TrEMBL record:
Protein's UniProt name: Coproporphyrinogen III oxidase
Family statement drawn from the similarity comment of this UniProt entry: Belongs to the protoporphyrinogen/coproporphyrinogen oxidase family. Coproporphyrinogen III oxidase subfamily.
PANTHER family the record matches: PROTOPORPHYRINOGEN OXIDASE
Biological source species: Chungangia koreensis
Primary location class: cytoplasm
Record carries keyword DNA-binding: no
Cofactor field: FAD
Localization terms from the record: Cytoplasm
Residue ranges of domain Amine oxidase in the record: 17-468
GO MF term list: oxygen-dependent protoporphyrinogen oxidase activity
Function: Involved in coproporphyrin-dependent heme b biosynthesis. Catalyzes the oxidation of coproporphyrinogen III to coproporphyrin III.
Keyword field contains Lipid biosynthesis: no
Length: 473
């Protein structure tokens, strides 16, 4: 048995979902395996959860940040199970999604996988593309494999395989809705390496994607409809944050305190806070955005390459209406917007349809998005100005009578990290530098190996395994 003197101090810096899951699993492992571990979670703001923020207002459940996660990525579901709220998980309602091209909503062709056509009849009947654009996309069936060595942009890869029209009118709106980025800058290797692997294996992206899609079973929902592939929590994603925080050991969370400086002391790290206090740690998990970490390690000449990673500024705009004031496409759940269209919004979710548990009976909840890489000025406008711009855009697309009952604007400055070409190599270099100079420090979070909520949890769990192996193996 280890003595109390052998207790190891681990500090997790950053209280978003990555830091929360790191702290939770550190304490869980310590309890289950008898590790003498003292865990401290440090968050610079006065609340935990990072971009996960749920507002519960007048019977509405409104997400200011992310609203869901992919069910097939298991880590969030497992975390919900571990904190005792798995029974609150709900899947999205499925329905038709659209692309706004110029002034018209076009259904996304059935069988499209991230914009790659797999059902050619539906693809050819779509109004999203000209005949020449459709014919150009079919060249994928005969084109040879890519001979590009190393990384390339999503735009370069997909334009070569499918042509400009499919990329501009379908793939770019879909993918930029996820990354708020520029396809001609985003890294294929770090965002969708599976498409490169599909091309290398099958040669044709269309044929390979069709074969891969056929292997995936679709689960029926209790209603008989195909079950949605996304999940959230019935009372909002912040329910997960609240549940995790309730499971953390008393006194193990420090809010409203920022790490200002770090000092290496033999095989430990001294963290100096902005309130003048400090703590000596045997291991540290930095679950903060990359720009925060790079500033802390700049005095040591480390992580300078992380400054090359841009982050886009975006905002979400939620609007509530009486149901009789809004007329929409039947069975529609939302739309994304082509860059070739003259609109400020980049996407809109008809939240009351996609997530029925979020909206009271007789009401409509529309959640629009503004801002993306290279088009961020709108986010700096006042709430009233943003509301007017978004409402004007929506009225050009769907019939809306009257004003919203309320509008909620949520700004996210430099929050959408851009995995540009060469990202994987920069991250590998960063991890190697830290391992060499500060082996007791681990980096985790959305800046590195995935921006989705499950990716963040996986990143935190990976850092936990590395810390525990270092300290107790």
């Amino acid at each position: 048995m280890m003595n109390v003197e052998d207790t190891k101090k681990v500090v997790v810096v950053g209280g978003g979902i990555t830091g929360l899951s790191s702290a939770f699993y550190l304490q869980k492992e310590a309890k289950e395996k008898g590790y003498p571990l003292d865990v401290l979670l440090v968050e610079s703001t006065h609340r935990l959860g990072g971009k996960i923020q749920t507002v519960r207002k007048d019977g509405f459940i409104i997400e200011r940040g992310p609203d869901s996660f992919l069910e097939r990525k298991k880590s969030i579901g497992e975390l919900a199970q571990d904190v005792g709220i798995a029974d609150q998980l709900v899947n999205n309602s499925t329905g038709q999604s659209f692309v706004l091209l110029e002034d018209r909503l076009h259904p996304i062709p059935k069988g499209s996988v991230m914009g790659i056509p797999t059902e050619l009849n539906n693809f050819f009947s779509s109004g999203l593309f000209s005949l020449s654009g459709k014919v150009r996309a079919l060249e994928d069936l005969v084109l040879p494999r890519s001979n590009v060595k190393g990384d390339q942009s999503l735009g370069q890869f997909f334009r070569r395989r499918l042509g400009n029209e499919v990329v501009e009118n379908l793939m770019e709106p879909l993918l930029s809705g996820i990354y708020a980025g520029d396809l001609d800058k985003l890294s294929l290797q770090s965002t969708y390496p599976q498409f490169y692997e599909t091309e290398q294996k099958y040669r044709s992206l269309i044929l390979g994607t069709r074969k891969n899609a056929a292997k995936r079973p679709t689960s029926p929902a209790p209603t008989g409809k195909v079950k949605g592939q996304f999940q959230t929590l019935r009372n909002g994603l912040e329910s997960l944050v609240e549940a995790i925080e309730s499971k953390l050991a008393p006194g193990s969370v420090l809010k409203g305190v920022k790490v200002e400086r770090i000092e290496k002391e033999e095989d430990q790290v001294n963290l100096i806070f902005n309130n003048g206090q400090s703590v000596i740690a045997d291991a540290v998990i930095f679950a903060t955005p990359h720009h925060v970490v790079s500033e802390l390690f700049e005095p040591y000449g480390l992580l300078t390459q992380l400054k090359e990673m841009p982050s886009a500024t975006v905002a979400t705009v939620a609007m509530a209406f009486p149901a009789d004031q809004v007329k929409q496409e039947d069975d529609g759940t939302g739309f994304v917007v082509s860059r070739n269209s003259d609109f400020a919004i980049t996407a809109c979710t008809w939240t009351h349809r996609k997530w029925p548990t979020t909206t009271p009976e007789g009401k409509v909840l529309l959640r629009s998005y503004v801002g993306r890489e290279g088009d961020e000025a709108i986010v700096d406008l006042s709430d009233k100005e943003i509301e007017k711009i978004v409402l004007d855009d929506l009225r050009k697309i769907i019939e809306i009578d009257g004003e919203p009952e309320f509008t909620m604007v949520s700004r996210w400055k430099k929050s959408m990290h851009q995995y540009t070409v060469g990202h994987k190599q920069r991250i590998e270099k960063s991890f190697h530098e830290i391992e060499e100079a500060f082996p007791m420090v681990k980096l985790a979070g959305a800046s590195y190996e995935g921006i989705g909520l499950p990716d963040c949890v996986n990143s935190g769990k990976k850092a936990v395994r590395e810390v525990l192996d270092d300290l107790f193996q």
